[in-house]
Specification:
The chain has no helices and seven strands. The chain is mainly β.
Length: 72
């Protein structure tokens, strides 16, 4: 069994107002946040202006960050 070394993130580390990858409209917050391997975190975004959905991956420099899902 592998033990996770992920640290809990502060709420202020959740990305806000990411521009839509298609139309550029700012999106207030991601729909879903999922920790990946190592220091990677995936964010699922949905633009309500153009209905485009996309995933962005962040790689943190010093620590992996675990976010609880925003949607079920």
């Amino acid at each position: 069994m592998m033990k996770s070394t992920m640290a809990k993130a502060h709420v202020d580390r959740v990305p806000r107002n990411n521009p839509c990858a298609q139309c550029g409209t700012p999106i207030p917050q991601p729909d879903w946040i999922e920790p990946g391997e190592g220091r990677r975190v995936s964010y699922l975004w949905t633009c309500h202006a153009c209905n485009y959905r996309f995933e962005a991956v962040a790689i943190f420099a010093h620590e992996a960050v675990e976010h609880p899902p925003l949607a079920a």
